[in-house]
Amino acid sequence: MKSLYLLFLFALATTQTQAQTPRFDEESVDLKALYQAIDDAISQSPQYVAHHEQKIAAYQDSLSSEKDTEKRILLTEKLFRLYESYNNDSAFYYAECCISLADSLHRPDLSGRFRSLLAYQYSRTDMPTQALEQLRAVKKSALNNRGLVDYYHAWMHVCGELGVYAHRKDDRQRHYDQQNFYRDSVLMVAQEGSEEWYHLKVDILSARRLYQEALKLSNQWLKMVKDGTHESAYAAFYRSMVYDNLNNHDLVCYWLGKSALDDIQCAVMNQASLLFLAEHLAEDGDIDRANRYLNFAKQCNLAFSSRLRNYQVNSILNIVEKNYQATEAHTHQLLTIAGIIIVLLLIALAYTTILSIKRKKK
């Protein structure tokens, strides 16, 4: 009965998401309609969150009554995936549960893969030291192909993070060289057409300035994922990065907005696309909408993790700076208008005074 309930729940979720996710056409971009769809999704966010919580509760219920360890691992991994972009602390907890269950079965292949997933979760939340501890505990020789993908992917990410925050140029370049090495390693073991394969290929083509080739590959990626899913949001985000390199403002905002919309409807709390979109809107002078999106994204990210990550803080500071500049410009404009009005009033007063003096003399 629980399995049937889960299947029914997922079918219902898919139907609801597809019904509420409007289709957008890149050939006729309507940013106004896209922003309205995002506004509507934000207003319905509590419903999406409640539905996500129902899925979590259903799996937790199944896990509490399951005795078979291998089945418990599958259920626990599913709970990790449900929390992965929803609540960071709970994601840590279920990843650690997966490791413990795998160790109880003496399965270094499984425990190594789960340690890699935990390491990636640490790395993407600005905790590289903990990520390295997990990766160094992995027995690489025991990993199967899927495990190697997750292992190399986690190493690639943490090396990139270490490179970003390295102070010395030599250290930064060393970390980036390691990141490139692990990127190549991922591509060697990742299945062609998988999410890891697509996003790394798009990255590489963009780095080589082969943007049209990157867009062609992005087309294939978008056709592979189901619209209105977190996977769709991920593919849309990387497409926006290609258009950012091409300086195509409207399509950058379009794909960031599409990515944000999918994530909101999937109850993703680890918001990035909406925050970046808010930055672009602030640059465009749409301060009110930028602030609304910033506040919602900030609430989501704090629900995901109690501590904002470095890139999130930078985005918030950029938007605050734009707010300050807009306020300063508006104040300057008001002062200018007030000054003109005062000058005109003084001229009118002087003119009235002169007329009055002339009348008295007559």
List the helices and strands and how they pair.
Blueprint: H1 2-20, H2 31-43, H3 45-65, H4 69-84, H5 88-104, H6 108-123, H7 128-136, H8 145-164, H9 169-189, H10 195-207, H11 211-224, H12 230-245, H13 249-265, H14 273-284, H15 287-304, H16 310-361
Number of strands: 0
The shape is elongated
Helical percentage: over 70%
Q: What's the tally of helices?
A: 16
The span between the termini is: 106 Å
Structural class: mainly alpha
CATH topology of the domain at 66-190: Serine Threonine Protein Phosphatase 5, Tetratricopeptide repeat
CATH class of the domain at 66-190: Mainly Alpha
- Major sheet: none
Q: Kindly report the average pLDDT value.
A: 86
Any guess at the CATH architecture of the domain at 66-190? Alpha Horseshoe
- Give the ordered list of helices and strands: HHHHHHHHHHHHHHHH
Name the poorly predicted regions: 1-23
Radius of gyration: 27 Å
Beta-strand percentage range: under 5%
Description:
The longest helix is centred in the C-terminal third of the chain and has 52 residues. Helices cover about 80% and strands about 0% of the residues. The chain has a domain of about 120 residues: Serine Threonine Protein Phosphatase 5, Tetratricopeptide repeat (Alpha Horseshoe), CATH 1.25.40. The N terminus is likely disordered. It is an all-alpha fold. The relative contact order is 0.08. α12 packs antiparallel against α13.
